[in-house]
Write a structure and sequence with these properties.
The structure is a homodimer of 224-residue chains.
Chain A lengths: L13 H15 L7 H7 L14 H23 L7 H18 L1 H7 L2 H7 L1 H24 L7 H20 L11 H14 L26
Helix pairs in contact in A: 3-4, 3-5, 3-6, 3-7, 4-5, 4-8, 4-9, 7-8, 8-9
Chain A binds a DNA duplex (30 and 30 nucleotides) through loops.
Chain lengths: 224, 224
DNA sequence: ATACATTGTTGACAGTGACTACTTAAGGGC
DNA sequence: GCCCTTAAGTAGTCACTGTCAACAATGTAT
């Protein structure tokens, strides 16, 4: 649309173009260091043009982070429609989706959780992040109501779930887990332990989730 | 020693001075962005002097990261001498020490786990990091041998422990947990869930660790 | 049509990391 | 004692960044 032979002076929708270009760059993550000028360059626009839409670099990053939380929530919601499965499978499915999002958008995920930027935005970022957190809380509440999850303070269980999943995601992003992608052994093994901690005693009679069952299926860690 | 009134031409031990200055800066973490020139400035030395001791900025950062892993391992080792306690207490003690290290040295901890830098160093960093990991593995092995920890593939349990503790640390650093410092509710609550996942059924008869017992003691999360 | 607000461009500034040429101090062989 | 090699520190360049101010092109309301 804006591929006019002579670039028009007014770009039409530069704000959106800048955001999408930036998201593309974030997805590449070739040890890339995010640069406003590079964004402008790729968007085919002068180096200061983005300043007409974002007061500064931090504002753009904050916007990207919010979009990231939105997409993460969408990913999690999309991953859990098969509510017919057991709760333990539901939890592992959500957890896998979470880690997958992080490893597929490493730079974006890191940005979402970088304190500097978040501080600048304040409230709005929190709403989006809380929406993600709610997905987890909802599953736990349902599990406790159904009796398949231990009756414990739900905040503690949520802390364990969130902390574990966040930690595994960061480790995976930083390449500290086995090179195989998400869904591979270390994550499932860790989830198995988590689920055993969450599960009520009676549900634990059931066999542990599959990929973590036999000792041979759990790969050791691999620092690159 | 090198506090001579007229700065001596040869600094004596600039390498060490640079490292300690950098560690100081890392400890401050005022949204500070680490700059070689600032290090030189604080060390009272010209902006290119550090290049006589480190080939480039990444090399200095790598050195700092290695020191960080060493100190983390020391912290963990120092935190666990009371082996007379129950294993579950031992685990929570180590975990608290781990998170405390992270929150007390936020920038250093983040640096230790930043992929870019680690990639540059390669092997040496891994040795140090593995030494930290070994502290965790040792406790788990001991627990399995003593029967107080579930007989499961130890890598999975280690993944759970490491992932959880790393995740909680990062969340705390980024200010996403309740403002109270380490040892506060969310961490203990999460650890309680973890311990229930690790513990063998018979040991779980014992009451959960104290601060996560009553629902009232577990604070909710707090996005700033 | 004309004034105005919006959007994009250009040029400039200070600050950064990498790098190089220069200068000074320290120590060893004679 | 002297000279010379080498290590350590300094100054300055280069390319790049984020940011800002001035300017130009465009669209819009009157």
């Amino acid at each position: 649309m804006q591929d006019a032979p002579n670039r028009p002076y007014h770009h039409g929708d530069l704000r959106r173009t800048v955001i999408e270009t930036a998201l593309d760059m974030l997805r590449e993550e070739k040890g890339w260091q995010f640069t406003l000028r590079e964004v402008a360059r790729r968007a085919g626009v002068s180096h200061a043009a983005p300043y007409k839409h974002f007061p500064d670099k931090a504002a753009l990053l904050a916007e990207l982070a919010m979009i990231g939380f939105d997409r993460l929530r969408e990913s999690l919601s999309a991953a859990k429609p098969t509510a017919s499965n057991s709760l333990r499978e539901e939890i592992t499915t959500i957890a896998r989706a979470y880690v997958a999002f992080g490893t597929e958008n490493p730079a974006l995920y890191r940005l979402m959780y970088s304190a500097e930027e978040g501080q600048a935005v304040g409230i709005h970022l929190n709403e989006r992040a809380l929406a993600v957190f709610d997905v987890l809380l909802e599953v736990l509440r349902r599990g406790q109501a159904a009796g398949s999850i231990r009756k414990r303070p739900i905040e503690g269980q949520a802390a364990a779930g969130w902390g574990l999943v966040h930690g595994m995601t960061m480790l995976a992003i930083d390449g500290l887990l086995v090179p195989e992608k998400v869904g591979s052994a270390p994550l499932d093994a860790a989830l198995s332990t988590l689920v055993e901690g969450l599960g009520s005693p009676e549900t634990l009679r059931a066999p542990a989730i599959r990929s973590a069952r036999g000792p041979g299926r759990v790969k050791t860690f691999c620092f690159r």
